[in-house]
Amino acid sequence: MPTRRPIRELPPALRNQIAAGEVVERPASVLKELVENSLDARASRISVTLDRGGQGLVEVQDDGHGMGAEELELAVMRHATSKVATFEELLAVGSYGFRGEALASIASVSTFTIASSPDGESGHALEVVHGRLESSKPVAMQRGTRITVRELFTNVPARLKFLKTPATENRRCTEIFTRLALTRPEVDFRLESGGREVLRFLAGQTLRERLAVVWPPAVTEGLIQVHESAHGRRVYGLIGHPGSAQGRPDRILFAVNGRPVQDKLLLRAVRDAYSGRLLSREHPQVALFLELDPHEVDVNVHPAKAEVRFRDERAVFSLVRRAIVHGLEGSLPGAALGDRPLHTPAADSSSQGVAATSSAPDIPQEQRREPHAQPPERRPAALNESSASYAGSLTTPEPPPFTRSAPPLTPPRSSQPDRSQAPLPFAPAEVSSTEAPAVRDASHVGPGAAGRGFEYLGQVAATYLLLRLDHGGLAVLDQHAAHERVLFDKLRNARDAGSRPLAVPMELPLHPSEAQRFMELAVELERLGFSLVSEGAKLSIHAVPGGLSPAKAREFLQSCLAERVDDLSAVWAMLSCRMALKAGEPLAPDEAMALLEAWAGCEDRDYCPHGRPVLISWSPDDLAKLFKRRG
């Protein structure tokens, strides 16, 4: 500023534009404010129309109680509202909005039209252009309110240039719309974009049914119902099984007293409850609803009311964590949610809190839990067959030797005893057939178990493979991490294995969310060797990568379309983890040898795709130091 200016009152138009900067960040913010107003008006049907991601048009129409002509002009003025009247009401906010700034702020940065009728007979409409009232006239319309916002931010170019592409802004609008729809299952929601219906949530749906509209069946069918209450607080909802975790945190939804929020405390409680059940880069699916006394939560800490603050954070954290842990362990202490409409009669939002108007299930007296899908048996069928069959199923090139000087590894084809092989150094000369050694003996794996850089000794704790190295050292290999690396390399190498046409095309049902994901991955999938044709609600598979069997290719596609991850490498890592052997699975000696040989041919074999070590080894000197044989 070149010279000092005197202090003076800002003009109304500038004040409204400054307020708009706090409330209206992008089209999704407009949608949120308008839909929340409709819910506060006790609407039973809400219809939203978008164009150009909301920058061209955001229109919200409802059948709420409406407003008369005398109220419309007040509605577009700052700090005018019907939702709070006293400071005491502000301390226990029972509605979505309460500052009286939203409509005035939106009208200051757009071409804004509002029409409303309280009785379905006489209505009135106002048009406001960039904060200036242009017209006021009577209209004929049904009971309710219709608000149209066009050309958002055209008078504020600095704000307009920070908007993303229409597709990105449209996705953000859809996310906000979905979060609001999940909190009020008794209300009918409809979203139209680009001239077609995108989402429809019917009144009376269950939470699971509403989630099934936007989440793929592979996720929603395995969701676990949770419910926990203590000291007047209650949390309920649906959580995903650890086996269905994904690579992005975009399916973690919270609502506090019916208000969708993004809260760090609740997120920490979720992560703590899943601790030890997920890999570091995996995220669960969660839709949780917390209800508590409005006096115990402050919703006025964020201009857009997207964050909240709890009076007793420790109690809330403990309640949410306990609900998830009990759900995962299958030991819910209270009744679980029934799979039926989560609806209680809504009270008037002007006198009752959002906790009263938000939908809540009737909890039955007896304990009841809806069965959920358990993770499928993950052990590959090939591991139950001969090692030759297993090695063949991997379809990887001939693996290099375990050490550079060792001969190529070949899978043994016989499990008959080989008396020419030297016995284990710590095993007795003869073992009765009725005795079971503590370590699974690998002395009967057939020719070639030794003389290749290592000798397989056996399996410990049905998880680790013991190896004696030629130089006299000892190594321990994690079977799950090793199999992960084998499968990951197989999926990665499938990119260069050409394409295998199918005599009869396979069909894959396609959920709307999966169809969108397919459009994003279509080019990369074609490069991998797939030939795919999208036909409405199904996907036809005409060719698969040469390195994958049709069954594995189908499973790979399902994971790609169900998991929202940043790149295919993350999909491969996640898929290999789920297909791999698990800790606690016993292996026959020939099965273990086939795994070792396949793993020895992998690139970056020292670590699994998630970064965990596969092999830990000790030289003779290391062992001597461990037993303090050397100083």
Overview of the structural elements:
With 631 residues, the chain is α+β, with helices and mostly antiparallel strands. It has 3 domains: 12-201, Histidine kinase-like ATPase, C-terminal domain (Heat Shock Protein 90), CATH 3.30.565; 207-357, Ribosomal Protein S5, domain 2 (2-Layer Sandwich), CATH 3.30.230.10; 378-420 and 439-631, formyl-coa transferase, domain 3 (2-Layer Sandwich), CATH 3.30.1540. The protein contains 19 helices and 22 strands. Strand 1 and strand 2 form a beta hairpin. Helix 2 packs parallel to helix 7 and helix 10 packs parallel to helix 11. The longest helix is centred in the N-terminal third of the chain and has 18 residues, at 166-183. The radius of gyration is 31 Å and the shape is elongated. The model is unreliable at 331-451 (pLDDT under 50).
Helices, by number, come to 19
CATH superfamily of the largest domain: MutL, C-terminal domain, dimerisation subdomain
The major sheet is characterized as: 8 strands, mixed
Rg of Cα set:
31 Å
Write out the strand line-up for the largest beta sheet, numbering strands in chain order. 5-4-3-6-2-1-7-8
Shape: elongated
CATH architecture of the largest domain: 2-Layer Sandwich
User: What separation lies between the terminal Cα atoms?
Assistant: 74 Å
Low-confidence residue ranges: 331-451
Proportion of strand residues:
15-25%
| CATH topology tier name of the largest domain | formyl-coa transferase, domain 3
Tally of individual domains: 3
| Average of the residue pLDDT scores | 76
- Can you count the beta strands? 22
Overall CATH class of the largest domain: Alpha Beta
